[in-house]
């Protein structure tokens, strides 16, 4: 390699630190959008570079490989949608959680489906997917139920208590496979009122919104 070529190769390395947090978020958003659209197997570093108007060499220097980039995108966009919910009653909390999950189902469900197969063969990817998409919501729903038990709304020994989060998040993922449609807000609120609340010994509210 000539000195000139060496200089051309070395120059981009010095630019690695210039990927700002804002630019990283743009790249991560592009990665997740492409996963939703085409799946994990179809995702390529070349495609991400083109979509985000970023040099492919920059992506490789920063993240090394597609799996590493996807893991970084999941961690970098991690957000909990449910932790702020506290209506004062378990019934109200679960209905509000159903609305929030339903509003995001068209965004989150395709992403989980796109990553599920690949995650089975990659412990790091599985861990990142759980930490970004699943664990924050599990913890929030479990906290809602715990508060309901502490307020005396639900008996602590009610066997349905431990399955509430699995019901809500499980039906969100399963409905596209079973019925060909996302578990949207209307569906999930009906599910909570018809299946989750009765199992906890709680009545659905008289009026629905």
Description:
This is TetR family transcriptional regulator. It is a single chain. Helix 2 crosses helix 6 and helix 7 crosses helix 8. The chain starts with a helix and ends in a 10-residue tail after the last helix. The longest helix is centred in the middle third of the chain and has 31 residues. It contains nine helices and no strands. It folds into two domains: 74 residues, Tetracycline Repressor, domain 2, CATH 1.10.357; 110 residues, Tetracycline Repressor, domain 2 (Orthogonal Bundle), CATH 1.10.357. With 209 residues, the chain is mainly α.
**CATH level 1 class label of the largest domain:** Mainly Alpha
Name the overall outline: elongated
Which regions are unreliable across 5 or more consecutive residues at pLDDT < 50?
1-17
Q: Main sheet?
A: none
Q: Which class best fits the helix and strand makeup?
A: mainly alpha
Query: How are helices and strands ordered from N to C?
Result: HHHHHHHHH
Question: What's this, in brief?
Answer:
It is built from 9 helices and no strands. With about 210 residues, it is an all-alpha fold. GO terms for molecular function: DNA-binding transcription factor activity; transcription cis-regulatory region binding.
């Amino acid at each position: 390699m000539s000195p000139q070529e060496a200089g051309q190769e070395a120059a981009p390395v010095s630019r690695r630190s210039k990927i700002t947090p804002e630019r990283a978020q743009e790249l991560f958003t592009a990665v997740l959008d492409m996963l939703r659209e085409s799946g994990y197997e179809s995702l390529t570093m070349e495609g991400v570079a083109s979509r985000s108007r970023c040099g492919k060499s920059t992506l490789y220097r920063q993240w090394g490989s597609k799996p590493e980039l996807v893991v970084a995108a999941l961690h970098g966009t991690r957000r909990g949608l449910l932790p702020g919910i506290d209506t004062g009653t378990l019934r109200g909390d679960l209905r509000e959680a159903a609305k929030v999950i339903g509003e995001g189902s068209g965004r989150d469900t395709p992403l989980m489906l796109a990553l599920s197969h690949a995650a089975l063969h990659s412990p790091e990817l599985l861990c990142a997917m759980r930490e970004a998409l699943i664990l924050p919501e599990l913890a929030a729903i479990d906290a809602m139920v715990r508060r309901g038990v502490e307020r005396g709304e639900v008996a602590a020994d009610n066997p349905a208590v431990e399955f509430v989060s699995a019901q809500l998040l499980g039906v969100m993922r399963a409905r596209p496979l079973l019925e060909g449609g996302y578990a949207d807000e209307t569906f999930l609120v009906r599910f909570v009122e018809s299946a989750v609340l009765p199992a906890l010994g709680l009545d659905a509210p008289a009026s629905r919104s």
